[in-house]
Amino acid sequence: xxxxxxxxxxxxxxxxxxxxxxxxxxxxxxxxxxxxxxxxxxxxxxxxxxxxxxxxxxxxxxxxxxxxxxxxxxxxxxxxxxxxxxxxxxxxxxxxxxxxxxxxxxxxxxxxxxxxxxxxxxxxxxxxxxxxxxxxxxxxxxxxxxxxxxxxxxxxxxxxxxxxxxxxxxxxxxxxxxxxxxxxxxxxxxxxxxxxxxxxxxxxxxxxxxxxxxxxxxxxxxxxxxxxxxxxxxxxxxxxxxxxxxxxxxxxxxxxxxxxxxxxxxxxxxxxxxxxxxxxxxxxxxxxxxxxxxxxxxxxxxxxxxxxxxxxxxxxxxxxxxxxxxxxxxxxxxxxxxxxxxxxxxxxxxxxxxxxxxxxxxxxxxxxxxxxxxxxxxxxxxxxxxxxxxxxxxxxxxxxxxxxxxxxxxxxxxxxxxxxxxxxxxxxxxxxxxxxxxxxxxxxxxxxxxxxxxxx
Amino acid sequence: xxxxxxxxxxxxxxxxxxxxxxxxxxxxxxxxxxxxxxxxxxxxxxxxxxxxxxxxxxxxxxxxxxxxxxxxxxxxxxxxxxxxxxxxxxxxxxxxxxxxxxxxxxxxxxxxxxxxxxxxxxxxxxxxxxxxxxxxxxxxxxxxxxxxxxxxxxxxxxxxxxxxxxxxxxxxxxxxxxxxxxxxxxxxxxxxxxxxxxxxxxxxxxxxxxxxxxxxxxxxxxxxxxxxxxxxxxxxxxxxxxxxxxxxxxxxxxxxxxxxxxxxxxxxxxxxxxxxxxxxxxxxxxxxxxxxxxxxxxxxxxxxxxxxxxxxxxxxxxxxxxxxxxxxxxxxxxxxxxxxxxxxxxxxxxxxxxxxxxxxxxxxxxxxxxxxxxxxxxxxxxxxxxxxxxxxxxxxxxxxxxxxxxxxxxxxxxxxxxxxxxxxxxxxxxxxxxxxxxxxxxxxxxxxxxxxxxxxxxxxxxxxxxxxxxxxxxxxxxxxxxxxx
Lengths: 456, 485
Description:
The complex is a heterodimer. Chain A is of the alpha+beta class.
């Protein structure tokens, strides 16, 4: 990627921070190149190619009862620029207050990361040509448009391929790096009939091209999802069971991840902050965050502080077993890091899921629908109506209305609302259809009752 | 380089990166060696810093330099774009070769020399000192004062989180038609989140507020401004300690002035962006000239308001910003355009071609979007409703442009009973249909207000700062997503 290796850049940044007056430091370098293409109809919409590198330096200064800290980041990696930014990080740190919990982790650094093969890097696909990805997008687009004459337009089909390298080092001697490749294909057709116009999408992503669904399958699935929305209408306001499919259910898990983040817990900005060890969810729910899942989209050999990554059980049959912690939030709570630090170049470490999922149950989505006399299957959610402090939840929804265990018609312009804590407890079926469309995944879930607001 | 360079940005890029006119023209010519309609270069240098306070102390600060350039080739609706964070004559040539691959046929036109265009004769947001150059110590002190003040206002304040972010962005646009434009965009923002707790610990609630715009740090740190902000955050957090469940269903909704203008952004603005209308994927496609709102409703997008967060001197393609009327007295009359979509649709450019950074292609985006004031006293608008809700503060919103369905979430709302304000309500999402929601407007207040400078709009993975505004507004039969059926 560069003449100077990532490890040399990071080592130089750490030296520069020390020279500028830091007592401890860490640095992360994120390097990447990528291409992205979009096709609409039978024409190329855009082709984008990019290259980027960003270095972030965190300097820590001993002072008073704790440490002062600050971060500086730059995309200019010239020697003088790196030294200037290291100096900036120390200067800004001097202006901050000492914090007893601040500092590098004391131990727990990954030792096995070099031997570990998590299936993240696939050099064999790095030479993939733009033309080949344009063809993938064309094929997905054509499959979607040929599915039905009502599919007469689209927002396009998009393919991307990228390669990145993360290098992390700190003044305690840890220095590591790993590479990761990623490829994706996304299709978003538009269907049209007398009742109006609808869009929907489907996507596939993975670390290598072989892991992707075929372009035709992506296009067809997108078209099916789009077509079934035609003629959607609101339903009258009511209280019914609500089923989340594997596209919408992960949003609940992302909310849960935010509420079990060590930062939300020590700040008491999570409605779960006093509930560790308690039954907070249905016994049907087990949530596991596994950073070492082979081929996982969020897998990583070490975390954003160089800590060994591992499998963390967050919920075990509804019992809240663990928070997600980095070293800072762990210190604040008197606990140990769970190896869940995430890191961007420009921000201090924070906490985030790696590969987080609800473990699948036994029922298929069809069986769950058949078991629902009257209710709503949610296929898309819009808006940000969730308050993690109180658990209040109210979001816009699109889906399919169920009567007598069968799908009857598409619905839209409705909201679904409840308290998120109640929703977790009210899950009464978990599907077998776990599907990884990102770092957070879930099978279908049914919440036994929520308020659906619509017409009247 | 000959054009006016009052902001000094053109000189800055030239001096710092050795980008002389020859190198810029050569890069454009490389791109034009293929059959393309247009080529342009975008350069950016941004510095940003942030300090964050929680638990009464500023624990950390950060500072960033982001720089890079992008080369674009446009052939009808096709765009080739290559960008890099390396700004050198060599990387520019490399990117030009990559971008032109969008077209296979050879071209042969040469770029016009960059002498026309330039920035308009105005600066909407002059600052004496870039906000990033105000000392970190001053920013730390400001957050400390905000924390003490918030805690002094109410003993139920349990947690205060505050941040101060300042940014200074310099951009330069060079086009094969001779466009040469630049802009210097300062941006400041204060964010505050207060958590209040009942004395018995039985309930916690949050109040969030923010303010900012394109001005300097001195202005941001004026106590009369931030004290009002802190007062509001504490008031909302403590008010919500008594909030009751929100009703669900269709009812009359009164929106307060200012930030509830997010309704216009979601329900109307996105649907009128040129790209969706060229592709005919917007619920507003083909409806130009039709009635889409009640009489008296006029909605504009105005990028020329001094010092506003959503304002720009020129857009990210070098087109000067302007005031565009989107809906006039209820009739749809304007789209928001960037260069590509305006040219393909044979419509005028409106200065709305914006991008998050050099790493992104420009798209039609809003600037400051608001509804003009009506005649009625706000109290009369409130009194006109027998049963409904009054929503004054909102979190975020989202829209499905194709179906037209949009949502936005209230975080300060009250029940209205017999024309009077009742109990505060916990947050709820409002949902509606963009193309007809403004036909449900039955009363428009005289109190147009713009938001305090906190809006960020996301589209296709790109974020840009925007503004909204609204007078007090009555809407009938809007769906309120509460829990009480």
